[in-house]
Write a structure and sequence with these properties.
It contains 15 helices and 15 strands. Helix 12 links the parallel strand 13 and strand 14. Helix 7 packs across helix 11 and helix 9 crosses helix 13.
Amino acid sequence: MKLALIHPQIIRGSGVENFLIEFAKRLSAAGHDLRYITSLTTPEIGAALPGRWELLPRLRGSATMRMWHFNRMAPRAAQAAGVDLSIGFGRTSVQDIHRNGTGCHRLYGNLLPFWQRFSLKHLYELHLERRLYTASETPKYVTSSARVAAQLQGIYGTDGERFRILSPPVETQLFQPAENRANTREIFCRKLQTDATKRVLLFVSLSHRRRGLEPLLEAMTQIDATLWIVGKNLNLAMHDKIKRLGIGSRIRVVPVTSNLVELYQSADWYVHPTQYDAFSNTVLQSMACGLPGIISVMDGAVDHIRNGENGLMLYHPQQPRELAARIQEALAFDAPAWQALSIAARETVLSLTWERHVQEWNEVIGE
């Protein structure tokens, strides 16, 4: 089938863009003829992805103008390309299927700083989202979680029959438990100047404010463990907060160049107190490595958490007291109980392969 994949930029960057690139390779391998409708890519990706490219003009000026222009031109380009079906991945309101990888922007917007909530860009994004889910220009939606689908249906009154829920895949051959966890853990603890006799908590984030680092730091005042912070560098305010709370000896800021798989393999618990996420790939990755998590119910990935069986749910991630209590509960697990959670976490995600994901997409396309 001839398919158009629509996104303003197809480059290595966000989770949505990285997914799109791998997804395109898999669709092509499954026999589909692809057209890429975008305004920006790189020569490397252009050469790596099979199919034809339709590069639309990229307007200079504000991001809002570029968004408006792309939303206007992309459906015309898909029609001109003579495709059988178009799949949108970004802020476009007209396509045959829209794959939502970012969740509900209206809910996400409540977490933005006050001044950003009234920016022209944010208001236009809200307009596009409202049009996407209240008009009939896009017949079908694919979301990563039941939670996001329910949010969109509740806010915009969209017919639930138009939604399909396809969990993202995870590379379980890459993300897997260490062959010798004790040895891997000892090496990494030594590298990060961490006392290997103490429990280690892992926090991974490129958006510390939204992912709940501040309440986590406050909770750490009550926790006898080490916290590894991976991802975005801490700003001066965060460093001051750590110093003011007196928890500097328990915090390690890990360089982004570190091997994420080995971090998952070395930590004792993955802590994810996000205030909003459509679906964090890090949750599935950590589970694939046998690392149990304390996962916020504000993340769509919580669909895969069975409280007390393969991880723990965090119901009020913004409350440091509850977060501390949940972490203390986790640290109280003895070795056999922790091992049972570890095994169950990995078994939960083993079926979430790319092969299964493409097969599910072929079913949606066939509909």
